[in-house]
Specification:
Radius of gyration: 16 Å
Helix content: 40-55%
Largest sheet: 2 strands, antiparallel
Order of helices and strands: HEEHHEEEHEHHH
Length: 199
């Protein structure tokens, strides 16, 4: 049932959002002339790697000196168009294709990048070494989820993984629908990047 729902909603989303793709592509090109899309390796269900597609929201060489590092508050690597896209989650629209392909679901733990690190104090720690990492990959990663909606952006990955494990234990169609509706509301308000309550 979950997979059938994902396919139906992703198909509708791709059809409805098609005009918006053109607007976002033009905005990205006008800003710095770089590529419109950005493909990343992500860790999927059972640890399988897949290529996630996003609208590019950062400078072309954003990770040249940092490696795979999650964006932080006030990150200078984010473009002006990227700030708007990230606040409304419009940069994630191409991942509807990943959902259609079966790489992702609408709801689940965030799809992480292989080799991504978390700083605990000044010490870089591979995410694979953070407790709860392996528990998350028993389900498809999601475009949205409990951690994405309810957790503060600035808490540690260790804490976010607790939200993911809570979702895995309690997942249901009702919970998925609640998270999807809240996600639409957050996108409408443009508060995905908020450090406080998102909705």
């Amino acid at each position: 049932m979950k997979r059938a729902f994902d396919v139906a909603l992703a198909s509708i989303g791709l059809a409805i959002s098609a005009p918006l793709w053109c607007v976002l592509a033009i905005a990205i090109k006008l800003e710095d002339g770089g590529p419109v899309f950005y493909a990343q390796d992500r860790v999927g269900r059972d640890g399988r790697l897949f290529r996630a597609l996003k609208f590019r929201s950062m400078q072309c060489d954003a990770e040249r000196t940092t490696g795979p590092l999650q964006a932080r508050h006030g990150d200078a690597r984010i473009t002006r168009a990227g700030r708007v896209m990230r606040a409304t989650a419009m940069d994630e629209l191409p991942q509807l294709w990943n959902i259609l392909r079966g790489d992702m679901s609408f709801v689940g733990p965030r799809a992480l990048r292989p080799g991504e690190i978390e700083f605990e104090g000044e010490t870089p720690v591979p995410l694979e070494a953070v407790p709860g990492y392996t528990d998350r990959i028993v389900v498809r990663p999601g475009l949205t989820g409990v951690a994405q909606v309810y957790a503060s952006r600035d808490i540690s990955r260790r804490s976010k993984f607790r939200y993911d494990r809570l979702y895995i234990r309690r997942r249901s169609f009702t919970l998925d629908m609640r998270l999807i509706l809240l996600s639409f509301w957050i996108s409408f308000r443009g508060t995905w990047e908020s450090r406080d309550r998102k909705y």
